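Data availability (excerpt). The following record was deposited with the supplementary files.
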Amino acid sequence: MSIKTQNIPRIGMRIMKSAVGVFLCFLIDILRGNAGIVFYSQLAVLWCMRDYVSETRRFAMQRSIGTVIGALYGLVLLLIHRKLPGEASFLGIISYRLIVSAFIIIILYTTVLIRQKQASYFSCVVFLSIVVNHIQDSNPFIFVWNRFLDTMIGIVVAVAVNCFRIPGKKRNEILFLSGLDDTLLSLNGSMSDYSRVELNRMIDSGANFTVSTIRTPASLMEPLRGIHLKLPVIAMDGAALYNIGENKYEYVYIVSSGHCEAVRSYFEKREIPYFANVVVDDVLLIYYQESDWEDYNTVVEKMRKSPYRNYIKRPLPENENVVYFMVIDKTERIEMLYADMMKEEFCQTLKVIMHLSTECEGCSLLKIYNKNASKENMIDYLKTQLGIEKTVTFGTIEGKYTYLIQPGDFNRVVKYMKKVYE
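Predicted structure:
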């Protein structure tokens, strides 16, 4: 399947459920002998039908409150209307329209008093539909009742359809773990609407899901925004287990003080500017040095704009909890640095990796971690904490994951997960 084909949006469950809800309103209207106006039921269905059950219930409550308020005030004005001069006279016309307008103030203020301002629009819509469009009906009181009943039918149908689930066992005994870039995220660094909605639906029903990435927690915030993650994510290439919801590092592999001194001494003797990522009270501090290299300073200025990163331009203090060291430079110089460092004795007991930089074209990063910092160790730790034995993983490297995800097929993770979980 080509990437171009995959960019065509799928027909989501919200669309399908909306159509089902509209059809059910037709059936109910037939059973009622066409006594009401099915149009109002269908409007309520379309408004209340949302991606998540919790949202549907919230919007249903807003619509219900708005309908009750609007119908009650409409009923009051119908009773007042009987006492007004005939609308055939100019005085009667003006008096009635002034009263209708004054009632809008009363209705809106009522929603403020009961702290339901979100329902104000629906209250006014229901009220005006009664007192403007149907005041001349032979029996407008019947319309008030049917207007209320039709809307409530639509609300109940929307909630019922969105809450309906085909019975089946959920695999809550499995830990689902996915990579992020080129795996769960699309080529533009975001998650598709289909994946986001379906993933959240499974997480909300109890699925144990999280991600593992080389990224720092700061760079995870935007792509994972709107995902109902309940488990901590494995970040920094397995060096940290970070709880996004609580902004808390639940477990971190720290570079020992002896190794920190050796790495720092190595860089300073060669006048190599470096970044030291330190965790202090669940806050990430990044110590860095000045450099005359323009690309280096551009990267620093770009990265420090994040509210989740705290850059400090000063030497690394002693006895800090360093998660990892990082150097950025042109790829050829990083390769030379890596080869030279691996000759040092202290590097034999550390995890030293290099990879291409996404922030600087033609550049690479060299990172130094605790030797135990790995995705595998963090998975074992997380499984122990959860009391889970089985793991299903998704990634782009053949032979390393349960399911291989081809770059660009960014909905495949959720599709596979649905098959296994449900």
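Summary of structural features: The chain has a mean pLDDT of 88.
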